[in-house]
Task: inverse folding
């Protein structure tokens, strides 16, 4: 695919020009008025065109990731098309989704970013067309023969790059659009491909790629050294022993021969409200009487490598977990509350590092903490006092990657029933939000898949609108006052969004926060 | 045989042969070499994806026959789209009577309703076109090709319906003879030696068939490939059991040695 003679229009400094156009500027933002209803907005052209993610400039980091270190490279058109060609040949999803879209419009009002902003390029089909226009021009016969006008395509230009960088970083790869697409066209796949193509020419987003680097170099997203991991987990243990007054309760680290290796997002180690769930996990393991351990080598469950079609990064990050599982000779691997981490763990890791024949075949490999806790609840291994959660009327925000990306419990819809089962098992009052905002149709928190940085506040606030409307609806109708989550990114996003939309921050928490409160410790029955 | 008739015969014959050739070669090439052969590295099935093969087949059947995924979204699009596809299919299968001899009952059972179905098909197409031009969001993403293909099919359907009325009604025996001639191997040889099949003397028919040939030629290069492409869609055709059954990435098969290194 090199027949496209990159026309070096005005040789000059293409990098400087593009940098000027995608420069990060701190923009003011305001939330959408809450009515409890999700209205489809009128199109407002270019309303979000000024929102640009910050770029990664640290040369060391860029070099480690294998991307150009000095911004846009001079021969970018060539590299761009080579990378695109490579991805089209390696990913059936991308190749097929370029071809078969009929632009029927079914997805146009499904994206939370479009609903919140009205920017037409945030309609999934319009976002994908940003790539299709290039695809039709350079990768189809009519485009090659008759040029861009004939196929409604685009010749590569700096303007195209700018649009790509802008709008492929306003997609949180939540896959909601694909639910409604008659052919299952998954914009997430297209966005992942676009991001890797941008990376290859030197336009690398900061927040996400910094983390991809840290996870490979240090083993976790927060960039903690092993001793810092130990310190913070010891703090968690001390805290637990103090509050529960049970000296045996533990957060074991690197214990060889434990039954369970537990991995979770490193945010759980000290961020709020994440840490409350970590207390919950520890209490569940303690009360179930199952030996478990965390690992300093696999100190991160999350895997930001998934957000880009750079298979190697994702694979390398994921390896730590399976290396740790082998080294610690565990029988099971259980993962904590996290969305995309779950998609990688459950759907991808068997392909990348399987088969897991060294683990206990009786249990799903790996297993979700909700599967584990619900199983313990059903078997009566946990003594629960629901009155501890009497003050709460809970609802659940289905995390996009869990809701649409995996199975749980080996059954269709398990990923909806099992977390709800856990909540209902520990909390008397539970209400679901309106049907079109939950389960397979759930809305993304609007910060997932690499868009949680402060630079993305304008889209985070606007994109959270659908969920906030649904939440305010059940709040008004049913007095809901707890938004239960199973994802670290959702937790971080909503503890910022709830106050922004006028709700108390304390209404956000993990499912295992509720579990942790309701478990009656000491009354040890075990299994 | 008049000169003009000869030219029409040759032109129409060429158009149809070319159309069929491009359609068959292009369609099979895309399906096999592109959609089938391109590897899919990871399992990306999408909810509500069943955990068994039988379930997946049922789900896909629901999408193909009843547009289940689409029905979750926009009502107008779902209805007009579904009616268009179903009536198009019914009309298409009725055309088998020009190819098959004797005509089986399953082709003729709609005899009475056929014209009505034709009108419903036309109406559905017009709704799709009007919706495309009036709906603000769909209009924004509409390309020229989207309108072109709708107009092309509207042209085909309109000429088809007009042939049911005088004075456009062609000689049915002549049409059938022409088609069976076209498809007979002897005629193909005859065509190459400049002895093409005799087109019936009906402008409307020639027009109809000409548009169909254009559609056939256009098909493999266009979004119409969604017809065959759907079956290769990884969010729909993969079984949701990645933890139980290891899915192997065709370009990274992995090995024990690599995993334990």
Result:
């Amino acid at each position: 695919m090199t027949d496209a003679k990159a026309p070096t229009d005005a040789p000059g400094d293409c990098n400087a020009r593009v940098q000027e156009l995608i420069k990060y500027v701190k923009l003011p933002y305001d939330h959408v008025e809450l009515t409890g209803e999700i209205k489809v907005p009128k199109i407002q052209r270019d309303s979000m065109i000024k929102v640009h993610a910050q770029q990664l400039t640290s040369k060391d980091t860029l070099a480690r990731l294998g991307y150009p270190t000095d911004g846009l490279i001079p021969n970018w058109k060539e590299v761009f098309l080579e990378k695109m060609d490579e991805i089209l040949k390696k990913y059936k999803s991308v190749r097929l989704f370029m071809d078969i879209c009929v632009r029927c419009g079914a997805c146009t009002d499904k994206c939370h970013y479009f609903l919140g902003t009205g920017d037409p390029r945030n309609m999934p089909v319009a976002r994908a067309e940003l790539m299709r226009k290039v695809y039709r021009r350079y990768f189809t016969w009519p485009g090659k023969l008759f040029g861009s006008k004939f196929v409604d395509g685009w010749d590569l230009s700096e303007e195209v790059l700018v649009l790509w960088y802008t709008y492929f970083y306003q997609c949180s790869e939540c896959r909601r659009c694909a639910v409604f697409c008659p052919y299952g066209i998954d914009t997430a796949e297209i966005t992942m491909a676009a991001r890797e193509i941008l990376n290859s020419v030197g336009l690398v987003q900061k927040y996400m790629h910094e983390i991809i680097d840290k996870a490979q170099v240090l083993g976790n997203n927060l960039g903690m050294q092993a001793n810092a991991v130990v310190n913070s987990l010891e703090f968690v243990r001390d805290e637990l022993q103090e509050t529960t007054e049970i000296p045996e309760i533990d957060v074991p680290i690197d214990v060889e021969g434990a039954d369970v290796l537990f991995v979770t997002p490193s945010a759980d180690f000290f961020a709020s409200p994440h840490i409350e769930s970590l207390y919950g996990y520890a209490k569940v393991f303690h009360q179930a009487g199952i030996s478990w351990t965390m690992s300093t080598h696999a100190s991160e469950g999350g895997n930001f490598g998934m957000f880009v079609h750079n298979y190697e990064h994702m694979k390398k990050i994921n390896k730590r977990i399976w290396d740790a599982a082998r080294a610690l000779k565990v029988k099971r691997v259980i993962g904590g509350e996290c969305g995309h981490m779950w998609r990688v763990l459950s759907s991808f890791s068997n392909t990348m590092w399987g088969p897991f024949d060294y683990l206990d075949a009786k249990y799903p490999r790996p297993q979700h903490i909700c599967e584990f806790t619900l199983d313990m609840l059903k078997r009566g291994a946990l003594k629960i006092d629901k009155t501890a959660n009497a003050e709460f009327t809970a609802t659940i925000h289905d995390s996009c990657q869990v809701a649409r990306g995996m199975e749980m419990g080996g059954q269709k819809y398990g990923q909806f029933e099992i977390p709800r089962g856990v909540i209902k098992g520990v909390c008397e009052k539970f209400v679901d939000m309106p049907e079109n905002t939950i389960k397979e149709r759930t809305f993304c928190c609007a910060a997932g898949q690499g868009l949680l940085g402060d630079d993305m506040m304008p889209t985070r606030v606007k994109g959270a609108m659908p969920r906030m409307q649904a939440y305010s609806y059940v709040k008004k109708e049913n007095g809901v006052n707890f938004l239960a989550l199973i994802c670290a990114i959702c937790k971080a996003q909503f503890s910022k969004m709830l106050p922004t939309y006028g709700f108390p921050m304390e209404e956000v928490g993990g499912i295992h926060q509720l579990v942790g409160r309701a478990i009656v410790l000491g009354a040890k029955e075990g299994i | 045989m008049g000169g003009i008739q000869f030219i029409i015969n040759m032109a129409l014959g060429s158009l149809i042969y070319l159309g069929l050739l491009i359609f068959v070669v292009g369609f099979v090439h895309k399906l096999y070499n592109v959609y089938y052969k391109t590897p899919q590295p990871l399992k990306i099935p999408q909810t509500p994806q069943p955990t068994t093969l039988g379930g997946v087949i049922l789900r896909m059947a629901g999408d193909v026959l009843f547009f289940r995924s689409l029905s979750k979204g926009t009502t107008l699009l779902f209805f007009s789209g579904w009616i268009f596809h179903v009536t198009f299919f019914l009309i298409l299968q009725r055309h088998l009577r020009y190819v098959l001899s004797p005509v089986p009952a399953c082709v003729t059972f709609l005899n009475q309703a056929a014209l009505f179905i034709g009108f419903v098909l036309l109406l559905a197409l017009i709704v799709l076109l009007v919706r495309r031009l009036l709906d603000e969001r769909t209009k924004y993403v509409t390309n020229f090709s989207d309108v072109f293909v709708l107009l092309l099919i509207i042209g085909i359907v309109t000429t088809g319906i007009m042939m049911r009325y005088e004075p456009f009604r062609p000689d049915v025996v002549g049409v059938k003879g022409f088609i069976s001639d076209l498809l007979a191997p002897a005629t193909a040889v005859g065509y190459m030696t400049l002895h093409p099949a005799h087109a019936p003397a009906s402008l409307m028919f020639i027009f109809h068939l000409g548009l169909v040939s254009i559609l056939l030629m256009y098909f493999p290069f266009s979004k119409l490939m969604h017809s065959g492409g759907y079956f290769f869609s990884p969010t729909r055709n993969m079984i949701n059991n990645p933890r139980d059954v290891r899915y192997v990435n065709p370009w990274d098969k992995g090995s024990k040695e690599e995993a334990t290194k």
Observations:
- The radius of gyration of chain B is 23 Å.
